Amino acid sequence: MAIKYDKLIALLKEKGITTYKIRKENLISQATYQKLRTGDGIIDTRTIEKLCKLLDCQPGDIMEYVPDEAE
Description:
globular
């Protein structure tokens, strides 16, 4: 997986945003949140924009490029 969202998960915890709050306020869909946690699938740029607005950060603050070991 080339893009990891570990920074996002840590930032959500730091800001006190729980999975309950994400579901209750419909910040992002539960399926999208699972994709972010597992690193599977493609995340839409609108979702990244919404998360950056919510967390008052830049995309680089929530994701990082990690080259595959095979490369």
